[in-house]
Write a structure and sequence with these properties.
Layout: H1 5-27, H2 32-42, H3 45-51, E1 53-56, H4 71-76, E2 82-84, H5 89-99, E3 109-112, H6 125-129, H7 134-150, E4 155-156, H8 180-195, E5 206-212, H9 231-238, H10 240-247, E6 252-255, E7 259-260, E8 263-264, H11 269-279, E9 285-287, H12 296-299, H13 305-315, E10 320-321, H14 325-335, H15 341-357, H16 370-376, H17 380-393, E11 395-399, E12 412-416, H18 445-453, E13 458-462, H19 475-483, E14 487-493, H20 514-523, E15 528-533, H21 541-546, E16 549-552, H22 560-568, E17 634-641, E18 645-646, E19 651-660, E20 666-676, E21 687-696, E22 701-709, E23 715-716, E24 722-723, E25 727-734, E26 740-748
Parallel strand pairs: 1-2, 1-10, 2-3, 3-4, 4-5, 5-6, 6-9, 12-13, 12-14, 14-15, 15-16, 18-26
Antiparallel strand pairs: 7-8, 11-16, 17-19, 19-22, 20-21, 20-25, 23-24, 25-26
Helix pairs in contact: 2-15, 3-14, 7-8, 7-16, 7-17, 8-10, 13-14, 17-22, 18-22
This protein binds beta-D-glucopyranose.
Beta-D-glucopyranose (BGC) binds next to loops.
C-alpha cells in the first residue's frame, strides 16, 4: 500500500487527535458509577455480601440485643458494611479505623435513629407536626443533622412517615399524624432538613424514609401487627408521604415489620420492586427493619434463614439490619443459582453509590470531627431553635374565661404533679443517649416556670402522686399547697416511654391516680391549668369537662420547660393545631376526619337511629383534626373564587380575609378543605388540600389566596391512575376540620 505524504500527515493528525482524546478522557475525574464499577470488579462475593450487612454497635441496642465478640475481626474481613448506634466522634472514628484495615478499605456507614434531635432534643415528631410550620420543622431536622454529622453519623433512620389513625399504636408519636397531605408536606420538609445542601456536604445526614409500607395501619394498633388494606387505601392514604419524601431527594428507605395483605413488607416485591424501584424509579437503597428479614420465619412466609434471605433480596431489600440472614446464607444462594449474581450486584451498587456520594471514599473520617462536634453540641442557636419549635407544638385545648395567659402579677403559683421536676421525661421516646453528655442541659418544667417567676411571684411545689400506681398519700399535701396559691398548674400524663415502639396501649386514659389528683385540686375552687404530657392522643373526658384550661404539651424536648413557660405567661401565643383526632373513647377508634360518607350518615347527635353511629356515644370526637386555640380569636370573611369553573389546563383562586380580633399578636393556621361531591369512586367528606400559617398583629387583617388546579382535585381511580373527574366540588375554609367558617362551590369542566 502506497501512502502519499499528505495522506500520511492526515493519519498522523488523526492519531494525535485520538491520543489526545484518550489522555483527556483518562484525566477526567471518574463518575461515581465508574468508580463503583471499578471497585466492584475487585470485590469477592463475600466482600459484596458484607456491604449488605448491618449490625448494631455493642452496648447500644434499639432492638433485641445481639453481641458479636469478633465484630472488629468481621469488619477487617470486609463482612460488615454498616453499623448502627455508634455514638460520638471518638467511637465512629475508631470503627472507621478498623474498616481501613480491611483489604479494600471500604468505609463503614454509620446509621442512627436521629428521629427528633441528636443532643438538642426537639419535640416528638407528632408534636412538632402540630406546629404546621414547615420552616421550623425543616430547621429542626437541619439542626439534628448538623449535630449528628459532626459526631460521625452519616445516615438517620428518619423521617418516619407512616400515617397514624390509631392512637393505641405507640408509634404514632414518631409520625406526622393522620393526614396524607400534611404528612407529605412534613415528610418533604424533614428530608430537606436532614440532607441540607445534599449528600456530600459534611453537615448533611442521609435520610431513611420509613416504614415501607402501611405499618401505621397495624390491626388493633398492636405494634408489628398485620395490615390488610385495599389497593385504593394504600395509594390514596398511605403511600403519598413516601413519594413526597422520595421527591424531596431521600437517599434510602426502610421496610417495615408488618405484613401487607399476607406478604411481609420485608419480602414484598410488589412494594419494593414494582412500586418503589419500578414505578417510582428509586435509585437509593432499602434497608430492612431490625431483624425483619429473619422475622419472616415467624410470619410463616419462609422456612429458614436462607429462605428469608432469598425472599428479602429478591423482593428488593438491599441491606439486612441485624438478622444475619444475608451473611449466613446469601453466598450459597448465589453459588447454587437460587439468587442471581445480578441481584446481589444491584444491591451492592446501590449501597456503594451512597458511600461515594457521601464522600466517604475521598475521606472516610470527614464526618467524625471532634472540634466540629464540640461546637455543634454546644451551639446556642440550636437551643433557640428547640425552644421555638417546642412552643409552636403546644396545643391549647381549653381556656375558659381567658384563664391563660397567666398574669405576670400573679402572687403565688402552685406547680403540682409528677412531671413538674422530671428531667429526662421531656425528651420523648427516641432520644439519643450521648456518652459523656449530662442530661442536665434539659430545661425542666419547674426550671422554666421558675425562670419567669424571678422576684415576681412565689412558686410552690408538691408532687401529688406518681405517674403510675395508686398511691394517693401525696394528695393532702398537694391540696394544702394549692390552697395557698392564686393559681394551680398541674403537670400530668404519660411517661416518655409509654408511647413509642412496642408501646401499644389498650387503655388511653391518663395513667395511675393523676386524674383523681386533678379532681381533688379542682375541688379547692382554685383555677387549675392542666398540662398533659404524652406521646399520643389520650382520653380524658372528665378533665376536659371540668378543668378550666388545658395545654397539651406532648414531649417537647430539651427546651420543654422554657417553651411551656413562654406559653403559660403569654410570651408566646399558642398556635398549634392537632394533627390527630382525639377520640371520646377507645371504642371510637379508628376515628379520623377524612372518612367517606355512608348511605346512612348521621347528621348530628340527635340523628343516630339506623345511622352510621354508636347508640351510646356522640358521633363527634373529643377534639378534631386541625383543632387548637390561641389567646386571640381569628375571624374569617369574604371568601371569593376567581371563577366558579375550573378547566383542566387552568387554575382558580380562592381568596379569604382573616382578622385577628383579639388583643394578642398571634399565628393562625388557615385550612383549605375540598369535597368532590360525586366521584366514580366515593371521595372523603373533606380532604385537606392546602393551608397557610400567618402572623397577625391585634386588629390586623390579611388576605390569603389559595390556588386550585387539576392536581388539587385529582385522585387515584380503581386502576391506580391519577385522574381528575369533571363535576362539582365544595371548597371549605376553616380553623379546623370541623370549624369550617366559609364555603363555596366550583365545577371542573371537561
Ligand atoms: C425500628 C426502626 C428503627 C430500628 C433501628 C427498629 O426496631 O422499627 O424504626 O430505625 O429499630 O433502631
Amino acid at each position: 500500500m502506497n501512502i502519499s505524504i499528505p495522506q500520511f500527515r492526515t493519519s498522523l493528525h488523526l492519531f494525535a487527535g485520538v491520543l489526545f482524546l484518550l489522555t483527556f478522557v483518562a484525566a477526567q475525574p471518574k463518575s461515581i458509577a465508574q468508580r463503583v464499577d471499578s471497585l466492584m470488579r475487585l470485590m469477592t462475593l463475600d466482600e459484596k455480601i458484607g456491604q449488605l450487612n448491618q449490625y448494631t454497635d455493642d452496648g447500644a441496642a434499639t432492638g433485641p440485643v445481639t453481641l458479636d465478640k469478633d465484630k472488629p475481626q468481621q469488619v477487617k474481613q470486609g463482612k460488615l458494611g454498616s453499623i448502627l448506634n455508634v455514638l460520638g466522634s471518638e467511637r465512629t472514628r475508631s470503627w472507621q479505623k478498623v474498616a481501613m484495615q480491611s483489604r479494600l478499605k471500604i468505609p463503614l456507614l454509620f446509621g442512627q435513629d436521629v428521629v427528633h434531635g441528636y443532643k438538642t432534643t426537639f419535640p416528638i415528631p407528632l408534636a412538632e407536626a402540630c406546629s404546621w410550620d414547615m420552616d421550623a420543622i425543616e430547621h429542626a431536622a437541619r439542626v439534628a443533622a448538623v449535630e449528628a454529622s459532626a459526631g460521625g453519623i452519616h445516615w438517620t433512620f428518619a423521617p418516619m412517615v407512616d400515617i397514624g389513625r390509631d392512637p393505641r399504636w405507640g408509634r404514632v408519636m414518631e409520625g406526622a399524624g393522620e393526614d396524607t397531605y400534611l404528612g407529605s408536606r412534613i415528610a418533604a420538609a424533614r428530608v430537606k432538613g436532614f440532607q441540607g445542601k445534599g449528600l456530600g456536604s459534611t453537615d448533611a445526614v442521609m435520610a431513611c424514609v420509613k416504614h415501607f409500607a402501611a405499618y401505621g395501619a397495624a390491626v388493633g394498633g398492636r405494634d408489628y401487627n398485620s395490615v390488610d388494606m385495599s389497593e385504593r387505601m394504600l395509594w390514596e392514604t398511605y403511600l403519598p408521604p413516601f413519594k413526597a419524601a422520595l421527591d424531596a431527594g431521600a437517599g434510602t428507605f426502610m421496610n417495615s415489620f408488618n405484613d401487607l395483605n399476607g406478604i411481609p413488607a420485608t419480602g414484598n416485591a410488589y412494594l419494593m420492586r414494582d412500586i418503589l424501584k419500578g414505578r417510582w424509579n428509586f435509585q437509593g437503597f432499602v434497608v430492612s427493619d431490625w431483624g425483619s428479614v429473619g422475622e419472616m420465619m415467624n410470619h410463616g412466609s419462609v422456612k429458614d434463614p436462607a429462605d428469608a434471605a432469598r425472599s428479602a433480596i429478591m423482593a428488593g431489600c438491599d441491606m439486612d439490619m441485624e438478622s444475619r440472614c444475608y451473611t449466613s446464607s446469601l453466598a450459597k444462594l448465589v453459588t447454587d443459582g437460587i439468587v442471581p449474581m445480578t441481584v446481589v450486584d444491584d444491591a451492592v451498587r446501590r449501597i456503594l453509590t451512597k458511600k461515594f456520594e457521601l464522600g466517604l471514599f475521598d475521606d472516610p473520617f470527614r464526618f467524625c470531627d471532634p472540634k466540629r462536634e464540640a461546637k455543634a453540641l454546644n451551639d446556642p442557636a440550636h437551643t433557640a431553635a428547640a425552644r421555638d419549635v417546642a412552643r409552636k407544638s403546644i396545643v391549647l385545648l381549653k381556656n375558659e374565661k381567658n384563664l391563660l395567659p397567666l398574669s405576670k402579677t400573679t402572687k403565688t403559683i402552685a406547680f403540682i404533679g409528677p412531671l413538674v421536676k422530671e428531667v429526662k421525661q421531656n425528651k420523648g421516646f427516641w432520644d439519643v443517649e450521648l456518652p459523656g453528655v449530662d442530661s442536665n442541659f434539659i430545661v425542666t418544667q419547674w426550671e422554666g416556670v421558675q425562670e419567669k417567676a424571678g422576684k415576681n411571684f412565689a412558686l410552690l411545689y408538691a408532687k401529688g402522686c406518681e405517674i403510675e400506681g395508686n398511691d394517693r398519700s401525696g394528695f393532702a399535701e398537694a391540696v394544702s399547697v394549692a390552697m395557698k396559691a392564686d393559681v394551680v398548674i398541674l403537670s400530668i400524663g404519660e411517661r416518655r416511654d409509654m408511647s413509642g415502639e412496642a408501646k401499644s396501649r389498650s387503655d388511653l386514659s391518663i395513667p395511675g391516680v393523676q386524674v383523681e389528683l386533678a379532681m381533688e385540686l379542682l375541688k379547692t375552687g382554685k383555677p387549675v391549668v392542666v398540662l398533659i404530657n404524652a406521646g399520643r392522643p389520650l382520653v380524658f373526658n372528665e378533665l376536659a369537662d371540668k378543668a378550666p384550661a388545658i395545654l397539651y404539651t406532648w414531649w417537647l424536648g430539651s427546651e420543654a420547660g422554657n417553651a411551656i413557660s413562654d406559653v403559660l405567661f403569654g410570651d408566646y401565643n399558642p398556635s398549634a393545631k392537632l394533627v390527630m383526632t382525639f377520640p371520646l373513647s377507645v371504642g371510637q377508634i379508628p376515628i379520623y376526619y377524612n372518612h367517606y360518607n355512608t348511605g346512612r350518615p348521621a347528621t348530628g347527635d340527635n340523628d343516630r337511629h339506623y345511622r352510621s353511629a354508636y347508640t351510646d356515644l356522640s358521633i363527634y370526637p373529643r377534639y378534631e383534626f386541625g383543632y387548637g386555640l390561641g389567646y386571640s380569636p381569628f375571624t374569617y370573611s369574604g371568601l371569593k373564587l376567581s371563577s366558579g369553573s375550573l378547566t383542566r389546563s387552568g387554575s382558580i383562586q380562592a381568596t379569604v380575609t382573616v382578622t385577628n380580633a383579639g388583643k394578642y399578636a398571634g399565628e393562625e393556621v388557615v385550612q383549605l378543605y375540598l369535597r368532590d361531591l360525586v366521584g366514580s369512586i366515593i371521595r372523603p367528606m373533606k380532604e385537606l388540600k392546602d393551608f397557610r400559617k400567618i402572623t397577625l398583629a391585634p386588629g390586623e387583617s390579611k388576605s390569603i389566596t389559595f390556588t386550585i388546579d387539576k392536581e388539587t382535585v385529582s385522585f387515584y381511580d380503581p386502576q391506580i391512575r391519577w385522574v381528575a373527574e369533571a363535576g362539582e366540588f365544595e371548597l371549605m375554609v376553616g380553623a379546623s376540620s370541623r370549624d369550617i367558617r366559609l364555603k363555596e362551590r366550583f365545577r371542573l369542566t371537561d
